[in-house]
Amino acid sequence: MIELRRVAVVALLLAGGCQGVKPPVQVSGAGELRPVAVVATPVEAVAVPAVVEPVGSPVVASPVVASSVVAAGPVAAGGLAPLSAEQRALLLAGGEERIFSKREHFTVSNEYRHDLWFPYLRGLGGVYVGVASDQNYTLMAVAGSEIGYLIDLDRQVVHLHRVYMALIAASEDPDGFLGRFGASAAVRRETRGLLEAGLSDMSERDRAAALEFVETNREALYEYLKAVRNTRRGEQGVTWLADPALYQYIRQMVAGGRLRPINGNLAGKTAMATIAAGARALGQTVKLLYLSNAEEYLYYTPDFVANVRGLPADPKSVVLRTIHDRFEGWESCGDGDRRWNYQVQPLVDFQARLGERKNTARTAMLARANEERVIDRVARGVSVFKSPP
Predict the structure, then answer these.
(1) HSE-up of 139 (CA within 13 Å, CB side)?
(2) Per residue in 320-366, pLDDT tens?
(3) From start to end of 217-333, where are the E strands?
(4) Of the candidates 111, 205, 288, 311, which lies 20 to 30 Å from 131 by C-alpha distance?
(5) Which is nearest to 153 in space by CA: 40, 341, 287, 293?
(6) For the chain, which residues make up each domain, given as ranges?
(7) C-alpha to C-alpha distances, 94 to 155, 189, 262, 305, 344, nearest whole angstrom
């Protein structure tokens, strides 16, 4: 169960802001990471059907091979077009791990300043790969991602993505979505009906688990999502529920069949390989890999190294990670988020460093990068790797 006390803390912090944080500075030198101006980009609203083809469960299909490339084209000026049936099959092809965490379920985010990353995300497009819950929607929408793989070790988090997607499809705006978690008997019946239809492709066991989770945590989910909807920096909403344009972008991704929640381990043998193969088959590169603080809990094992190095990337691809300020040298933003340092690293640089045997874990990798003086502290709580030459 999600603790209401923790949700109340989240609400207070989301309502805060970082005082004295300057906009990220431009890093000098050709090929360096350069933040893009933070400008709200409206997304043209589109009519989204109340019920869309369920997404997220793996489809039994033949393995994706490099020769089977069906490019998911760039986003059209009027918005995101639905994937073709062939593209959709490629997105859903391949297996996943089946993992159900017995530990705490990280179904709400404890990171409150994703907007500190926005200057580095605008216009990235391509394929998005990210762990954890709904904060992925904010990052995908800001980046203009065209395909989204939402991977998590905990099957309950994957179930929650499916829940959110079913309700997003049926909700025209953020307030309509939030209202699906209301407490009245009529709202609960309607929401359950939408979820039973939207999750109809899931096994009976998984569907029952998802429905039970929503019913048990309805109040906590409502309070958390309300806080997300109310998150602003000045007059600008900075989350997928606070900025109507970001919500409409995610709604287009759902309607277009462009999202796949996938149960998997970053250091596993199946799910990450599925993601890499799917991106290649769709003729795309992974432009954004969001790790949150998952690296605190793993070593750079041969499987993890192979998984990350196997992702198709290009010089514009980035890794986003958060580093707890209990680790020496990684200060947090301060007001608004007294926990995390928000870091950006070129994905090709990360892939190269993973090839060095001495980099056995995040701590070792960052220590060497600091010795090389390749990480700039561009603002309080924001650190950026210089792009490799």
Answers:
(1) 34
(2) 999 999 999 999 988 789 999 999 999 999 999 999 999 999 999 99
(3) 232-233, 236-237, 259-263, 286-292, 318-324
(4) 205
(5) 293
(6) 4-385
(7) 17, 35, 10, 20, 29
Q: Are 384 and 33 in contact (CB under 8 A)?
A: yes
Residue type, position 21, single letter: V
C-alpha distances in angstroms, 294 versus 81, 132, 158, 159, 320? 33, 9, 16, 19, 11
17 vs 352, more confident: 352
- pLDDT of 200 strictly over 50: yes
Core vs surface per residue 223-233: b (16+ CB within 10 A) or e: bbbbbbbebbb
Q: For CA atoms 283, 136, 125, 50, give the dihedral sign.
A: positive
Structure tokens at 355: 């090839």
Please give the pLDDT value at position 204.
Answer: 97
This prediction's pTM = 0.85
| Range in 28-32, 58-62, 355-359 with the lowest mean pLDDT | 58-62
- d(C-alpha 337, C-alpha 13), whole Å: 7
301 DSSP 8-state letter: -
Helix (H, G, I), strand (E, B), or coil: what is residue 129?
strand
DSSP β-ladder status, 236-237 and 232-233? antiparallel
Q: Are 146 and 258 in contact, with CB atoms under 8 Å apart?
A: yes
**CA Rg value for the chain:** 20
d(CA 250, CA 144): 9
Pair 132, 152: CB distance under 8 Å = yes
Mean pLDDT of the chain: 85
Under 8 Å between Cβ of 385 and 369: yes
Asked whether 2 and 107 are in contact (CB, 8 A), the reply is yes
How many whole angstroms separate alpha carbon 14 and alpha carbon 163?
Answer: 23
In contact, 116 and 228? CB cutoff 8 Å? no
| pLDDT tens for each residue of 90-148 | 999 999 998 876 666 689 999 999 999 999 999 999 999 999 999 999 999 999 999 99
Greatest alpha-carbon span in the chain: 60
For residue 201, the tally of other CB atoms under 10 A from its CB is 14
Select from 241, 138, 243, 224 the least CA-distant residue to 181. Answer: 224
